[in-house]
Amino acid sequence: MDAAIKKQALRLFTYGLYIGTAGHGDDVAAGTINWVSQASFQPPLVMAGVKADSHLHALIESTGQFAINVLSADQKGVAQDFFRPSQQDGQSLNGHAFEPGPATGSPLLTELPAWVECRVTDAVKRGDHSVFVAEVIEAGVRDDAAKPLDMWDTGWFYAG
Ligand SMILES: Cc1cc2nc3c(=O)[nH]c(=O)nc-3n(C[C@H](O)[C@H](O)[C@H](O)COP(=O)(O)O)c2cc1C
């Protein structure tokens, strides 16, 4: 296989951008992630590729739960704030307000237009990221006019 062509092909996959969160109380983690997809209607499953050495990964493993917060088209700056390790200051994470999710307690960022809370059903631990498959057990929409942030439009790549 030609590694450069493999990279080029994988970078043509389309992605959204999300803030993945997990944990509750004083031990929470949040990170911008793009390796996310719905994976089943019934039961409603999603899957997420999460960096094996991240705090987010550790908390998803220990709690068996996480939340996916959807970024809107005008929230590239918020995405950028969650490339770095998450720092909690009261009810704020990396400078953005959150509230605990009703089903899992995972942080829900109140500026973002939509979220789902999930319970992990399966984990594939292979390579530098693990794939968590999880059932959606709660969901919310704060802004039903929002358009999602499209990875391609940001000029960023996390694929290859
Ligand atoms: C454009 C972009 C997309 C990313 N996508 C993912 C992803 O899909 N999964 C993931 O685990 N980390 C992804 N990351 C990395 C995380 O944003 C970030 O490094 C991680 O949350 C830091 O968390 P930690 O402090 O717990 O290690 C991405 C980073 C960038 C710059």
- CATH architecture, please? Roll
CATH class: Mainly Beta
Helix/strand-derived class? alpha+beta
Q: Largest sheet, described in full?
A: 7 strands, antiparallel
Biggest sheet strand line-up: 2-1-5-10-11-4-3
State the fourth-level CATH superfamily: Electron Transport, Fmn-binding Protein, Chain A
Beta-strand portion reads 35-45%
CATH topology (level 3) name: Pnp Oxidase, Chain A
N- to C-terminal separation? 13 Å
Bound molecules: flavin mononucleotide
Number of helices: 4
Q: Round the Cα radius of gyration to an integer and report it.
A: 15 Å
Overall number of structural domains: 1
Describe the structure.
The structure is a single chain. This protein has one domain: Roll (Pnp Oxidase, Chain A), CATH 2.30.110. The chain is 17% helix and 44% strand. With 160 residues, it is an alpha+beta fold. The model has no long low-confidence stretch (mean pLDDT 97). A 7-stranded antiparallel beta sheet has the order 2-1-5-10-11-4-3. It starts with a helix and ends in a 6-residue tail after the last helix. Flavin mononucleotide is lined by residues 29, 31-35, 49-51, 54-56, 82-83, 85, 129, 156, 158.
What key attributes describe this structure?
160 residues, Pnp Oxidase, Chain A, 4 helices, binds flavin mononucleotide
Tell me briefly what this model is.
The chain is of the alpha+beta class and 160 residues long. The chain has four helices and eleven strands, in the order H-E-E-E-E-H-E-H-E-E-E-E-E-E-H. Helices cover 17% and strands 44% of the residues.
